[in-house]
Amino acid sequence: MPLDPPLAEALARPGRAAIRFTDEVGDPTRPITLHTYRPQAHRPGNPVVIVQHGMARNGDEYRDFWVEAADRHGLLIVAPTFSAELYPGAELYNNGHVLDGDGSLRPEAARGYKVPARVFAALRDAGVTSRQKAWIFGHSAGGQFLHRLLSTEPHDVFEAATVGNPGWYTLPTLDRPFPEGLGGIGATEANLLALLAYPMTVLAGEADTETSGPSLPSQPAAIAQGPHRFARARHYFEAGKAEAARRGVPFGWQLVTVPHIGHDGAAMSRVAASLWFDGRMPPVETLAEWGRAKAGAL
Question: pLDDT digits over 201-221, tens only?
Fold first, then answer.
């Protein structure tokens, strides 16, 4: 997995870096950029947070949303960035490039959903981290990417996973075709049971209620999940709860709603950081201030 510059060299010094990562095991024709931040206090035993950007393919911005938390808690931030030039459209990023343009199934090893685990393995191989697991957060298109990753990939590399404000969801069923459901892509009953049991957090901004716009999916399958992102988050959570109850299996998800916050990548990043590393939701007064500012990106 060639890197330019090598990870150990690029992350030897505190601060921001941009590192070219070529996934030789997956799709070597489409390298990605790792936008990273290492605070002065980071040591190999400190947490690593992988951040999946939104539709603007702005991993540098999403990395920067985590800098304050990184400085306070000694976190290493890594934002794998899938450029619009090499990964155009939702199919190649949000949907993991599972299917070719003709609808045929691509090799499993070539899926974009493999990338975060391979990036974390490269960090471990380089001695940058000694952690066994990473935290992973995805917002908007990155939330679509992340919950589909969790639907199809092993979870053992993740300490925790938080999915923020996706535009729509892949429902936990094998009876509907991907990406509406998990049918037709080789997902198994074991994948579905592991997804339902996993302690995934669905983080939903209570003010993420726009019913139209260029970034809100509007295909019939998405509209069927609700008129806006906040409704669709509830629909997804309830679908998972109902599926687990129907099967009589454990259900590990939690739905956390965030007062005052809409479709704001900066605010939702700060909320996720606070829940994970401070153990609490930010004060409602702070959330209201962030909501008024509306400073985040997609």
Answer: 999 999 999 999 988 999 999
> What pLDDT digit, counting tens, does each position of 113-129 carry?
999 999 999 999 999 99
Beta strand segments in the chain, E: 3-4, 15-21, 32-38, 48-52, 76-81, 134-139, 158-164, 201-205, 254-258
User: Are the beta carbons of 32 and 118 closer than 8 angstroms?
Assistant: no
CA distance 213 to 206: 18
Determine the angle formed by the axes of helices 229-247 and 189-197, rounding to 10 degrees. 110
Angle in degrees, 0-180, between the axes of helices 141-152 and 189-197, rounded to the nearest 10: 120
Which of left, alpha, beta for 117 (phi over 0: left; psi -120 to 50: alpha)?
alpha
| Contact call for residues 226 and 217 (beta carbons, < 8 A) | no
In degrees to the nearest 10, what's the CA dihedral of 187, 59, 290, 226?
-30
Give SS3 for 81.
Answer: strand
Full set of structural domains in the chain with CATH? 3-293 (3.40.50.1820)
List the structure tokens of 130. 């000694």
